[in-house]
Write a structure and sequence with these properties.
The protein is 38% helix and 13% strand. It is an alpha/beta fold. The strands form two sheets. The protein has a three-stranded parallel sheet. The chain has a two-stranded antiparallel sheet with strand order 3-4.
């Protein structure tokens, strides 16, 4: 039975395990009140290339230390925007569903909004649509007053402290055909699943 809501960090094109968690709740609440954490899934994701996993990172403007994720800006002064999409296309250009879904991501990857949180939310919305997950996506800053002093809110905030560790670990995922290598690589961005499995991607989400 689904619980009423789940509170998750704002990640950029997160791994499949992130969407497994979304499935168990009626409402998805993104914690936009947390202090930004560098070198986390908030501004990077992993894809699979012929050389193995590759981290795609969106640098952020300084100073970032101590700032809310709502106030983090993407550093567009660095010459990396075109390289990111080129890397994705090289990795997945021959994947069965790349041509079908690439238009959903290309323009946003090449030309993200200034605000990191906005970028993450836009990408998340696209992925939820492709996966056919119809969930309300809310911000903690707008919902907190309604959730205070409820037992589930306290529980979810405790769980929130451990999400970074959880999503960085292997989750015994259901293997699917990938573009490179003989051994399945888990923990990759959801786009690895989408480009390889297309409309069947949702079948690989855990039925929790």
């Amino acid at each position: 039975m689904n619980k009423d809501f789940i509170i998750l960090p704002s990640y950029l094109l997160p791994p499949k395990s992130y969407f497994d968690q979304i499935k168990v709740a009626k409402r998805l609440i993104i914690n936009d009140l947390e202090v930004y954490k560098k070198q986390s899934l908030r501004n990077h994701f992993d894809i699979l290339t012929s050389q193995g996993p590759l981290m795609i990172t969106y640098p952020v403007q300084k100073p970032w230390r101590g700032k809310s994720i709502r106030d983090i800006k993407i550093d567009k002064t660095q010459k990396w925007l075109k390289n990111h999409w080129r890397s994705i296309k090289t990795a997945y250009g021959k994947a069965p569903f790349f041509e079908y879904y690439s238009d959903y991501f290309e323009s946003l990857i090449k030309n993200p909004p200034d605000n990191l949180l906005e970028f993450n939310l836009q990408q998340l919305s696209i992925c939820l649509k492709i996966l056919g997950i119809n969930k309300k996506m809310l911000l903690l800053s707008e919902e907190k007053s309604n959730l205070l002093n409820t037992s589930q809110f306290e529980l979810e905030m405790e769980r929130f402290k451990n999400w970074d560790v959880y999503f960085s670990q292997k989750q015994d995922e259901l293997a699917y055909q990938q573009q490179f290598g003989n051994d399945f690589v888990d923990g990759l961005s959801i786009i690895d699943l989408i480009f390889n499995q297309g409309p069947e991607s949702v079948l690989y989400l855990k039925k929790t």
